Amino acid sequence: MTSKKQFTRIAVGLAGAVLLSSAVAAQARELSVSTVLSDAFPWGQAAEKWAELVEERSGGELTLRVYPNAQLVSGDQTREFSAMRSGIIDLAVGSTINWSPQVPELNLFSLPFFLSDVAQVDAVTSGEAGELLFQAIEDKGVIPLAWGENGFRQLSNSSAAIEAPDDVAGLKIRVVGSPLFQDTFTALGANPTQMSWADAKPALTTGAVDGQENPLSVFDVARIDQVGQEHLTLWNYMNDPLVFAANPQVWGSLSADDQQMLRDTAIEAGAWEIAKTREEESARLDAIRERGVTVTELSEDQYQAFVEATLSVHEEWVPKIGEPVVEAARRDIGK
Ligand code: X2X
Description:
Helices cover 50% and strands 18% of the residues. It is built from 15 helices and ten strands. The chain is globular and about 60 Å long. The site of (2S)-2-hydroxy-2-methyl-3-oxobutanoic acid has 12 residues, from helix 4.
Protein backbone atom coordinates (compact mmCIF):
# COMPACT_ATOMS: atom_id res chain seq x y z
CA MET A 1 0.00 0.00 0.00
CA THR A 2 1.23 3.48 -0.78
CA SER A 3 1.44 5.61 2.33
CA LYS A 4 0.42 9.25 2.26
CA LYS A 5 4.06 10.24 2.63
CA GLN A 6 5.18 8.05 -0.28
CA PHE A 7 2.31 9.40 -2.39
CA THR A 8 3.39 12.96 -1.70
CA ARG A 9 6.94 12.08 -2.63
CA ILE A 10 5.82 10.58 -5.93
CA ALA A 11 3.59 13.56 -6.67
CA VAL A 12 6.41 15.99 -5.94
CA GLY A 13 8.74 13.90 -8.08
CA LEU A 14 6.28 13.93 -10.99
CA ALA A 15 5.73 17.66 -10.73
CA GLY A 16 9.50 18.09 -10.70
CA ALA A 17 9.84 15.97 -13.81
CA VAL A 18 7.18 18.02 -15.59
CA LEU A 19 8.90 21.24 -14.56
CA LEU A 20 12.24 19.84 -15.66
CA SER A 21 10.97 18.81 -19.09
CA SER A 22 9.35 22.18 -19.69
CA ALA A 23 12.63 23.76 -18.63
CA VAL A 24 14.39 21.57 -21.22
CA ALA A 25 11.85 22.65 -23.85
CA ALA A 26 12.49 26.30 -23.02
CA GLN A 27 16.23 25.71 -23.05
CA ALA A 28 18.44 27.37 -25.61
CA ARG A 29 17.81 26.18 -29.12
CA GLU A 30 20.84 26.05 -31.36
CA LEU A 31 20.69 26.58 -35.11
CA SER A 32 23.54 25.90 -37.50
CA VAL A 33 24.84 28.64 -39.83
CA SER A 34 26.91 27.64 -42.85
CA THR A 35 29.54 29.93 -44.37
CA VAL A 36 32.36 29.33 -46.84
CA LEU A 37 34.87 31.68 -45.21
CA SER A 38 35.80 31.85 -41.52
CA ASP A 39 35.72 34.89 -39.26
CA ALA A 40 39.21 35.84 -40.41
CA PHE A 41 37.25 37.28 -43.37
CA PRO A 42 34.37 39.82 -43.42
CA TRP A 43 32.06 37.03 -44.64
CA GLY A 44 32.62 34.88 -41.55
CA GLN A 45 32.45 37.99 -39.38
CA ALA A 46 28.98 38.67 -40.80
CA ALA A 47 27.79 35.31 -39.50
CA GLU A 48 29.47 35.79 -36.11
CA LYS A 49 27.89 39.23 -35.81
CA TRP A 50 24.48 37.70 -36.56
CA ALA A 51 25.07 35.05 -33.87
CA GLU A 52 26.13 37.71 -31.36
CA LEU A 53 23.02 39.84 -31.99
CA VAL A 54 20.68 36.83 -31.81
CA GLU A 55 22.20 35.65 -28.55
CA GLU A 56 21.80 39.15 -27.09
CA ARG A 57 18.22 39.75 -28.28
CA SER A 58 16.92 36.31 -27.36
CA GLY A 59 18.51 36.47 -23.90
CA GLY A 60 20.43 33.33 -24.85
CA GLU A 61 17.34 31.28 -25.74
CA LEU A 62 18.25 31.09 -29.38
CA THR A 63 21.87 30.55 -30.35
CA LEU A 64 23.51 30.35 -33.75
CA ARG A 65 26.54 28.16 -34.24
CA VAL A 66 28.66 29.07 -37.25
CA TYR A 67 30.23 26.26 -39.31
CA PRO A 68 32.79 27.87 -41.65
CA ASN A 69 34.74 26.39 -44.59
CA ALA A 70 31.56 24.91 -46.08
CA GLN A 71 32.18 21.99 -43.69
CA LEU A 72 28.47 21.04 -43.55
CA VAL A 73 28.73 20.19 -47.27
CA SER A 74 32.26 18.71 -47.08
CA GLY A 75 33.74 21.82 -48.66
CA ASP A 76 31.52 21.65 -51.73
CA GLN A 77 30.16 25.20 -51.56
CA THR A 78 27.91 24.86 -54.62
CA ARG A 79 25.85 22.31 -52.64
CA GLU A 80 25.18 24.70 -49.75
CA PHE A 81 21.87 25.94 -51.10
CA SER A 82 20.49 22.41 -51.65
CA ALA A 83 21.67 21.35 -48.19
CA MET A 84 19.84 24.29 -46.62
CA ARG A 85 16.72 23.54 -48.63
CA SER A 86 16.73 19.92 -47.47
CA GLY A 87 17.41 20.79 -43.82
CA ILE A 88 21.01 19.55 -43.46
CA ILE A 89 21.78 23.22 -42.79
CA ASP A 90 19.43 25.44 -40.72
CA LEU A 91 20.74 28.84 -41.76
CA ALA A 92 23.45 30.20 -44.05
CA VAL A 93 25.24 33.35 -45.00
CA GLY A 94 25.97 32.34 -48.57
CA SER A 95 27.37 33.76 -51.78
CA THR A 96 25.19 34.47 -54.80
CA ILE A 97 27.90 32.77 -56.90
CA ASN A 98 27.68 29.56 -54.91
CA TRP A 99 23.88 29.48 -54.97
CA SER A 100 23.55 30.36 -58.66
CA PRO A 101 23.63 26.73 -59.84
CA GLN A 102 20.26 26.27 -58.05
CA VAL A 103 18.94 29.83 -58.43
CA PRO A 104 19.86 30.96 -61.98
CA GLU A 105 18.50 34.48 -61.36
CA LEU A 106 21.44 35.09 -58.99
CA ASN A 107 23.75 35.03 -62.02
CA LEU A 108 22.62 38.62 -62.47
CA PHE A 109 25.53 39.75 -60.26
CA SER A 110 28.02 37.67 -62.24
CA LEU A 111 27.19 39.18 -65.64
CA PRO A 112 30.61 40.60 -66.56
CA PHE A 113 30.87 44.39 -66.18
CA PHE A 114 27.13 44.80 -65.60
CA LEU A 115 27.33 46.42 -62.13
CA SER A 116 30.29 48.74 -61.95
CA ASP A 117 30.27 50.24 -58.46
CA VAL A 118 28.84 49.76 -54.98
CA ALA A 119 26.11 52.36 -55.55
CA GLN A 120 24.76 50.18 -58.37
CA VAL A 121 25.01 47.05 -56.24
CA ASP A 122 23.01 48.77 -53.50
CA ALA A 123 20.45 50.05 -56.01
CA VAL A 124 19.87 46.49 -57.20
CA THR A 125 19.80 44.72 -53.83
CA SER A 126 17.48 47.32 -52.33
CA GLY A 127 15.45 47.76 -55.52
CA GLU A 128 12.94 46.01 -57.70
CA ALA A 129 15.51 43.43 -58.86
CA GLY A 130 16.43 42.64 -55.25
CA GLU A 131 12.82 41.80 -54.52
CA LEU A 132 12.58 39.55 -57.57
CA LEU A 133 15.80 37.80 -56.53
CA PHE A 134 14.49 37.18 -53.00
CA GLN A 135 11.30 35.84 -54.57
CA ALA A 136 13.38 33.52 -56.78
CA ILE A 137 15.24 32.20 -53.72
CA GLU A 138 11.95 31.61 -51.93
CA ASP A 139 10.46 29.87 -54.98
CA LYS A 140 13.43 27.48 -54.83
CA GLY A 141 12.57 26.59 -51.22
CA VAL A 142 14.72 28.79 -48.98
CA ILE A 143 13.73 31.88 -46.93
CA PRO A 144 15.95 34.89 -47.74
CA LEU A 145 16.43 37.41 -44.93
CA ALA A 146 19.10 39.99 -45.71
CA TRP A 147 22.03 40.99 -47.93
CA GLY A 148 25.75 41.03 -47.14
CA GLU A 149 28.80 41.41 -49.37
CA ASN A 150 31.83 39.37 -50.36
CA GLY A 151 32.82 42.19 -52.70
CA PHE A 152 33.94 43.16 -56.19
CA ARG A 153 36.11 40.43 -57.62
CA GLN A 154 39.59 41.18 -58.98
CA LEU A 155 41.78 39.03 -61.18
CA SER A 156 45.18 37.69 -60.14
CA ASN A 157 47.73 35.49 -61.86
CA SER A 158 51.29 34.24 -61.54
CA SER A 159 52.78 35.12 -64.91
CA ALA A 160 52.45 38.79 -65.91
CA ALA A 161 50.37 41.93 -65.49
CA ILE A 162 46.95 41.72 -67.17
CA GLU A 163 45.91 44.87 -69.02
CA ALA A 164 44.06 43.45 -72.00
CA PRO A 165 42.00 40.39 -72.93
CA ASP A 166 45.04 39.10 -74.86
CA ASP A 167 46.98 38.91 -71.59
CA VAL A 168 44.40 36.46 -70.23
CA ALA A 169 44.56 34.22 -73.29
CA GLY A 170 45.83 30.75 -72.50
CA LEU A 171 45.89 31.20 -68.73
CA LYS A 172 44.36 28.49 -66.56
CA ILE A 173 41.97 30.32 -64.25
CA ARG A 174 40.24 28.78 -61.23
CA VAL A 175 36.51 29.63 -61.13
CA VAL A 176 33.55 28.53 -59.02
CA GLY A 177 29.78 28.67 -59.36
CA SER A 178 27.61 28.32 -62.43
CA PRO A 179 28.81 27.71 -66.01
CA LEU A 180 28.55 31.48 -66.56
CA PHE A 181 32.13 31.72 -65.26
CA GLN A 182 33.33 29.16 -67.78
CA ASP A 183 31.73 31.29 -70.49
CA THR A 184 33.26 34.57 -69.28
CA PHE A 185 36.80 33.24 -69.13
CA THR A 186 36.42 31.26 -72.34
CA ALA A 187 35.28 34.48 -74.06
CA LEU A 188 38.56 36.03 -72.88
CA GLY A 189 40.53 33.14 -74.35
CA ALA A 190 41.48 31.63 -70.98
CA ASN A 191 41.14 28.02 -69.80
CA PRO A 192 38.75 28.17 -66.85
CA THR A 193 38.71 25.30 -64.34
CA GLN A 194 35.86 24.91 -61.86
CA MET A 195 36.95 24.07 -58.32
CA SER A 196 35.90 24.74 -54.74
CA TRP A 197 37.62 27.24 -52.48
CA ALA A 198 39.09 24.32 -50.51
CA ASP A 199 40.89 23.14 -53.65
CA ALA A 200 41.83 26.59 -54.97
CA LYS A 201 44.84 27.42 -52.82
CA PRO A 202 46.51 24.01 -53.31
CA ALA A 203 45.95 24.36 -57.07
CA LEU A 204 47.55 27.82 -57.04
CA THR A 205 50.44 26.52 -54.91
CA THR A 206 51.31 23.67 -57.27
CA GLY A 207 50.77 25.81 -60.33
CA ALA A 208 47.94 23.55 -61.53
CA VAL A 209 46.20 26.86 -62.27
CA ASP A 210 47.78 30.21 -63.17
CA GLY A 211 45.17 32.54 -61.79
CA GLN A 212 42.02 33.17 -59.82
CA GLU A 213 39.52 35.92 -59.08
CA ASN A 214 38.30 37.00 -55.64
CA PRO A 215 37.56 40.18 -53.67
CA LEU A 216 40.50 42.10 -52.15
CA SER A 217 39.53 40.93 -48.65
CA VAL A 218 39.89 37.29 -49.70
CA PHE A 219 43.16 37.93 -51.56
CA ASP A 220 44.53 39.78 -48.53
CA VAL A 221 43.41 37.52 -45.68
CA ALA A 222 44.16 34.26 -47.50
CA ARG A 223 47.56 35.68 -48.57
CA ILE A 224 46.98 34.65 -52.16
CA ASP A 225 50.20 36.47 -53.12
CA GLN A 226 52.16 33.91 -51.09
CA VAL A 227 51.11 31.17 -53.49
CA GLY A 228 52.73 32.93 -56.44
CA GLN A 229 49.93 35.31 -57.43
CA GLU A 230 52.11 38.35 -57.94
CA HIS A 231 49.92 40.23 -60.41
CA LEU A 232 46.56 41.69 -59.54
CA THR A 233 44.28 43.56 -61.93
CA LEU A 234 41.56 45.78 -60.49
CA TRP A 235 38.78 45.34 -63.04
CA ASN A 236 35.64 45.22 -60.83
CA TYR A 237 34.13 42.78 -63.33
CA MET A 238 31.43 41.60 -60.92
CA ASN A 239 30.25 41.87 -57.34
CA ASP A 240 29.46 38.88 -55.12
CA PRO A 241 26.72 39.80 -52.64
CA LEU A 242 25.99 37.48 -49.73
CA VAL A 243 22.52 36.39 -48.64
CA PHE A 244 21.43 35.51 -45.10
CA ALA A 245 18.79 32.77 -45.33
CA ALA A 246 16.90 30.02 -43.52
CA ASN A 247 15.56 26.53 -44.15
CA PRO A 248 11.75 26.87 -44.42
CA GLN A 249 10.89 24.20 -41.77
CA VAL A 250 13.23 25.81 -39.26
CA TRP A 251 11.74 29.19 -40.13
CA GLY A 252 8.20 27.87 -39.74
CA SER A 253 8.99 26.39 -36.34
CA LEU A 254 9.91 29.80 -34.91
CA SER A 255 7.42 32.13 -33.25
CA ALA A 256 6.48 35.29 -35.15
CA ASP A 257 8.58 37.27 -32.65
CA ASP A 258 11.62 35.08 -33.18
CA GLN A 259 11.20 35.30 -36.95
CA GLN A 260 11.12 39.07 -36.71
CA MET A 261 14.16 39.07 -34.44
CA LEU A 262 16.10 36.73 -36.73
CA ARG A 263 15.31 38.87 -39.78
CA ASP A 264 16.12 42.17 -38.02
CA THR A 265 19.44 40.87 -36.71
CA ALA A 266 20.34 39.48 -40.18
CA ILE A 267 19.66 42.91 -41.71
CA GLU A 268 21.75 44.60 -39.01
CA ALA A 269 24.64 42.15 -39.30
CA GLY A 270 24.52 42.45 -43.10
CA ALA A 271 24.60 46.25 -43.09
CA TRP A 272 27.44 46.18 -40.55
CA GLU A 273 29.46 43.75 -42.68
CA ILE A 274 28.83 45.57 -45.98
CA ALA A 275 30.09 48.84 -44.47
CA LYS A 276 33.11 47.11 -42.92
CA THR A 277 34.07 45.31 -46.14
CA ARG A 278 34.00 48.58 -48.07
CA GLU A 279 35.82 50.61 -45.41
CA GLU A 280 38.66 48.10 -45.24
CA GLU A 281 39.25 47.87 -49.02
CA SER A 282 41.80 50.65 -49.42
CA ALA A 283 43.91 49.55 -46.45
CA ARG A 284 43.83 46.02 -47.85
CA LEU A 285 45.02 47.27 -51.22
CA ASP A 286 47.89 49.12 -49.52
CA ALA A 287 48.84 45.97 -47.63
CA ILE A 288 48.76 43.90 -50.82
CA ARG A 289 50.97 46.44 -52.61
CA GLU A 290 53.37 46.51 -49.67
CA ARG A 291 53.78 42.76 -49.95
CA GLY A 292 55.16 43.32 -53.46
CA VAL A 293 52.14 42.53 -55.63
CA THR A 294 51.98 44.38 -58.97
CA VAL A 295 48.59 46.08 -58.96
CA THR A 296 47.23 47.04 -62.37
CA GLU A 297 44.49 49.64 -62.76
CA LEU A 298 42.79 49.81 -66.15
CA SER A 299 42.38 52.94 -68.23
CA GLU A 300 38.92 53.61 -69.64
CA ASP A 301 39.96 52.15 -73.03
CA GLN A 302 41.50 49.06 -71.48
CA TYR A 303 38.34 48.53 -69.44
CA GLN A 304 36.17 48.87 -72.57
CA ALA A 305 38.20 46.17 -74.31
CA PHE A 306 37.21 43.71 -71.55
CA VAL A 307 33.58 44.85 -71.71
CA GLU A 308 33.45 44.19 -75.46
CA ALA A 309 35.25 40.86 -75.22
CA THR A 310 32.58 39.54 -72.83
CA LEU A 311 29.40 40.89 -74.45
CA SER A 312 28.60 37.41 -75.82
CA VAL A 313 28.18 36.25 -72.20
CA HIS A 314 25.30 38.71 -71.78
CA GLU A 315 23.57 37.41 -74.92
CA GLU A 316 23.90 33.86 -73.65
CA TRP A 317 22.97 34.49 -70.02
CA VAL A 318 20.32 37.22 -69.93
CA PRO A 319 17.65 34.70 -71.07
CA LYS A 320 18.84 32.20 -68.43
CA ILE A 321 18.74 34.82 -65.67
CA GLY A 322 15.37 36.00 -66.97
CA GLU A 323 14.63 39.21 -68.87
CA PRO A 324 12.30 40.55 -66.10
CA VAL A 325 15.10 40.41 -63.49
CA VAL A 326 17.66 42.00 -65.81
CA GLU A 327 15.19 44.70 -66.89
CA ALA A 328 14.32 45.44 -63.25
CA ALA A 329 18.04 45.75 -62.45
CA ARG A 330 18.51 48.14 -65.41
CA ARG A 331 15.68 50.30 -64.03
CA ASP A 332 17.20 50.16 -60.52
CA ILE A 333 20.53 51.50 -61.78
CA GLY A 334 19.03 53.78 -64.43
CA LYS A 335 20.86 52.02 -67.28
O1 X2X B 1 35.35 30.34 -53.58
C1 X2X B 1 35.45 31.57 -53.69
O2 X2X B 1 36.10 32.12 -54.59
C2 X2X B 1 34.72 32.43 -52.68
C3 X2X B 1 35.31 32.16 -51.32
O3 X2X B 1 34.89 33.77 -53.01
C4 X2X B 1 33.28 32.05 -52.75
O4 X2X B 1 32.80 31.28 -51.97
C5 X2X B 1 32.47 32.58 -53.87
